[in-house]
From TrEMBL:
Domain NADPH-dependent FMN reductase-like: 3-142
Protein name as it appears in the record: NAD(P)H-dependent oxidoreductase
Organism: Aequorivita echinoideorum
Cited Gene3D superfamilies: 3.40.50.360
InterPro entries named in the record: Flavoprotein-like_sf (IPR029039), FMN_Rdtase-like_dom (IPR005025), NAD(P)H-dep_reductase (IPR050712)
Amino acid sequence: MKNILVFSGSNSSRSINQKLINFAASQVAGYTINSIKLIDFELPVFSEDIEREKGYSINLKMLMNKIKEADALIISVNEHNSMVSAFFKNVLDWLSRLDRKFLEGKKILLMSTSNGKRGGASALEYTKNSFARFGGEVVESFSFPSFSENFSEEKQSISNELLLLGFMDVLQNFLHQIEQ
């Protein structure tokens, strides 16, 4: 059985990207799902001085092991001011210093959401390009617009029927891709 690691790029306790990830994980059957929160792997702001003086933290190595153990990843990135969040960028900086190709051989479903109509599309595009440099293959992506209007907090589900159908199609295509 394939292992799928799922996480959001957010450090917010009320993250809508975490809610989207939780929903995605709930829709996957027949796979081992390992859901983590990046905030549990505390990392200082990247600095070459820290890297040189202290090396790589146990938290970074534990996170790297989680990624290495996974056959595939489902990630939802948040957007701050039309860019990936500083928190997530910092995580990528540390991971790529430990192993430049830390995503080598990983198939990825990359998602983003925001309360805006673009659904975090700028952060999604930035991350998609970054993941290729780190050896990852984004086989599917999904930008979920206007989160508060299209997601039911009560049901923890996508409430917009058309978006739900689109999401399920993307998810099924991703699952099909990781079987190949």
